[in-house]
Amino acid sequence: MKSFTVGKNDAGKRLDKFIQKAMPGLPNSLMYKFIRTKHIKVNGKRAEISTKLELGDTVEAWIKDEFFEKGDPKYDFLSAPVKLDIVYEDENIILVDKKQGVLVHPDDKEYSDTLIGRIQHYLYDKGEFRPEEENSFKPSLANRIDRGTGGIVIAAKNAQALKILCEKIKEREIDKQYLAVIHGTPEKREATLEGFLEKNESKNKVYLKSEKQDGNLTIKTRYRVLKSKNNLSLIEVDLLTGRTHQIRAHMASVGHPLLGDGKYGKLANDKKLGFTRQALYSYKLTFNFKTDGGILDYLNGKTFTVNKVWFAEELFDFKV
């Protein structure tokens, strides 16, 4: 028999989800059987698969030791470098300025050096992340940014913070503003663009349509021209909807593709000018809660900005 005590990062989880993380060697079919036959109990009593665990609950598993065997712990995140540009940090969250070229999560080409790996390594070294004490939670990202885009990414240090952040992002109660450089100068110095986005998964590309069709998504992008020079413009963008490649595709659709954009722009020409990365940066973030923020309510109304956006300074002498 082995017992687990439910900590703060596991409180609120369903029993089956908790067991899947705490006992990864136990097949789901046996897990459901053991819960039904009372080989797995909560606080010494029979429980349902959907039972929501509370802080301090004891989960007892009267099953063979082989299902508890995890082997020697090997933490993949320790292979990631501890190299972070921290915008803000407290006991619940950490805001990091992700540099262009860094992946947020592993993919089929890069597994070790990712932003989440760097953050987990950093918190492990600080003693704030102790994976051996956690049954299921690990520091996680609440939002993500494309590899070629830079800017602020939010990571949660505990499960409660992650839940709140995900809810606030879904309800659009966290505002993000971007800086970008586009080709040309829009006729209107400030405008809100509207369109319908169609995603092509196989090409990892989106297309803009002028009319609503089955399967496409409504998008709204507000921009403001800050400076124009040498047939380029520095713009500030508010995402009124948050869709894949929205800024890049929307600006290209109106004849003003982003500088250095290899998917929607004029990369061959831009490379001749020395620009091989898309000029897009999520440079400002504001917590704009419309409802209670729980343990994160102290962040409401606060704005955070990165220290520097390279293309804004280099091309327009614009400091954030």
Written overview of the protein:
Helices cover 19% and strands 28% of the residues. It has seven helices and 14 strands. The protein has helices at residues 15-22, 28-36, 115-126, 159-170, 246-253, 267-272, 310-316, and strands at 2-5, 40-42, 58-61, 86-89, 93-98, 140-141, 150-156, 174-183, 190-200, 205-209, 217-229, 232-239, 280-287, 303-305. The strands form two sheets. Strands 4, 5, 6, 7, 8, 9, 10, 11, 12, 13 and 14 form an eleven-stranded mixed β-sheet that branches. The chain has a three-stranded antiparallel β-sheet with strand order 1-3-2. The longest helix has 12 residues, at 115-126. It is elongated. It starts with a strand and ends with a helix. The mean pLDDT is 90.
What is the structure about, briefly put?
By secondary structure, the protein is an alpha+beta fold.
Report on the biggest sheet: 11 strands, mixed
Determine the fraction of residues in helical runs and give it as a percent range. Answer: 10-25%
The stretches of 5 or more residues where confidence is low (pLDDT under 50) are: none
Overall mean confidence score, pLDDT: 90
First-last Cα distance: 58 Å
Give the DSSP E fraction (strand runs of 2 or more residues): 25-35%
Radius of gyration: 23 Å
State the total count of DSSP E strands.
Answer: 14
Q: How would you describe the shape?
A: elongated
Number of helices: 7
Series of secondary-structure elements, N-terminal to C-terminal: EHHEEEEHEEHEEEEEHHEEH
Secondary structure class reads alpha+beta
